[in-house]
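In this supplementary section we document a worked example of the pipeline. Step one takes a protein sequence of length 269 as its only input; no multiple sequence alignment statistics are reported here. Step two produces a three-dimensional model, which step three serialises into structure tokens for compact storage. The input and output of this example are shown verbatim.
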Amino acid sequence: MKTIKYLMVVLTIITAASCKNEKQTPKAEDAAATETINKTEKTMNVLFVLTSHEDLGKTGEKTGFWIEEFASPYYYLVDKGVKVTVASPKGGQPPIDPKSELADFSTPATERYNKDTATKELIKNTVKLATVNPADYDAVFYPGGHGPLWDLAEDKTSIALIESFYNANKPVAFVCHAPAALKHPKKADGSPLVKGKKVTGFSNSEEAAVQLTEVVPFLLEDMLQENGGTYSKGTDWAPYALEDGLLITGQNPASSELVAELLLKKLEK
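The serialised model returned by step three reads:
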């Protein structure tokens, strides 16, 4: 009789424990599902930095940022749900290279930009770079145009910003002339950020083709090599981009969307 009672007690305990586990399992599954949803729905924030420089050396001509190099990566990222904030050293409306508005350089992205009043308004009101908190963003992207060779290459705020992103293990991306902004940034050990890195940017041969070799303050290809970067290029004017750890660089305007693709893949890892 005692044995029967003992067995009944054990059976009751096992049944109760089983019921308890059944009740807890859905909760655990719900928590896991919620965590997955939260990760999926997390909005990525990318900072775009545009030049504020408008004078093309002493030629009397104007420069600035190249529309294609902003528009193509901008639309690629926002169409994927990325939130983009645009900044510049002076804030407000950054100068647009007038040549980038010519029909010869029209692309689907520039045509979309030309009809996009909301994005034009965004550009008109860029955030002043000095007010940016790198902690608010997951990555930074620098579109080109000749302007960065003069201002972003020497801008102390930009230099500190790039170093902050890189040292915080966040991707830094540049296209065409924008790698000029890599002239002075350093790694945590004090060496040039590009030292030992695979890099590209507007080539000497492309600069010669646009007849600005003697106008620009320095040749981008030469600077990257002088800073210890392992420079390479593709065919002139064709898409070519490199990823080396956190550093992503593109050679020319045609490479701008490719840089954005590499950046997004890096952010999604």
